[in-house]
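Private note to self, pasted from the team thread so I don't lose it. Backbone tokens:
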């Protein structure tokens, strides 16, 4: 065994040596490669390179612009620019796309923190767990339903933001800071209407800020967490009320199974069809969703 290992080691060493010699030979055979920079002479590009002066992106030397129009022409690759139209501060299409993509990236956070989405999704989750149907309806259906219900509830707020903030800003009537402040007012009013006073007082006390009871004195850093805590409390209260009739069904089925000596049969297996039957006969989705939406009005 030791002799075999020694022979194997010699063969491995010979292979490594041959590979190293082969690599050195390749490096010696390949001609020298040089990286040439673009050389401009008499208005033409270097003969060793491809392209012409018309394909250059740098049209003039830095610092040669005398006006805003000259500044735009300095680099033809610059497609995202902010244009000022007589001080109105309008932005071009490319920058609007950039802002839109940024808002889309922040949309999930804004929807969860500033709208009715949190309460709706929690109540729907409690409803599915109370029915004990595991993945029916699936998560995609619950999230989609919650999104459209959120859009339905927030439609008046969205309309007010569009008419009072977005349209005047597009027309140049108001500036960006003023548009953001005006757009935030309807959202603040919605959140304040769904927030309990004790939650606001809690965060105002933590932040060591005095509150006179007026909504204008509540900063967003206090109103948003207060609103979310209130939404969680309300959603759990509604979830508890939904659980009560289904718990009664579970208790009745468990008692019946115990009296018949069928202790090895899980009560949830027998009670789930009765839960679904009760939910369908009572038109449960109409009751749950209808009363859930009414809690915001």
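Design output:
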């Amino acid at each position: 065994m030791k002799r075999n290992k020694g022979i194997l080691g010699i063969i491995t060493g010979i292979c490594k040596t041959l590979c190293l010699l082969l690599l050195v030979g390749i490096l010696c055979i390949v001609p020298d490669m040089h990286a040439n920079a673009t050389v401009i002479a008499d208005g033409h590009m270097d003969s060793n390179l491809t392209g012409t002066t018309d394909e250059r992106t740098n049209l003039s030397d830095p610092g040669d612009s005398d006006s805003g129009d000259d500044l735009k022409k300095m680099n033809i690759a610059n497609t995202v620019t902010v244009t000022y139209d007589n001080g109105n501060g309008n932005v071009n299409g490319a920058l609007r796309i950039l802002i839109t993509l940024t808002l889309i990236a922040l949309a999930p956070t804004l929807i969860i923190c500033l709208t009715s989405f949190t309460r709706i999704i929690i109540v729907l989750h409690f409803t599915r767990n109370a029915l004990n149907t595991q993945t029916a309806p699936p998560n995609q259906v619950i999230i989609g339903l919650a999104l459209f219900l959120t859009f339905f509830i927030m439609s008046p707020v969205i309309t007010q933001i569009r008419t009072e903030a977005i349209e005047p800003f597009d027309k140049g009537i108001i500036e960006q800071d003023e548009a953001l402040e005006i757009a935030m007012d309807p959202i603040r009013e919605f959140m304040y209407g769904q927030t309990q006073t004790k939650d606001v007082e809690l965060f105002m006390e933590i932040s060591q800020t005095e509150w006179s009871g007026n909504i204008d004195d509540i900063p967003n850093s206090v109103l948003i967490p207060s609103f979310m805590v209130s939404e969680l409390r309300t959603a759990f209260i509604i979830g508890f009320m939904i659980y009560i009739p289904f718990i009664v069904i579970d208790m009745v089925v468990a008692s019946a199974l115990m009296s018949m000596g069928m202790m090895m049969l899980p009560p949830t297996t027998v009670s789930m069809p009765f839960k679904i039957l009760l939910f369908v006969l009572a038109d449960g989705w109409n009751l749950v969703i209808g009363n859930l939406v009414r809690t915001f009005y």
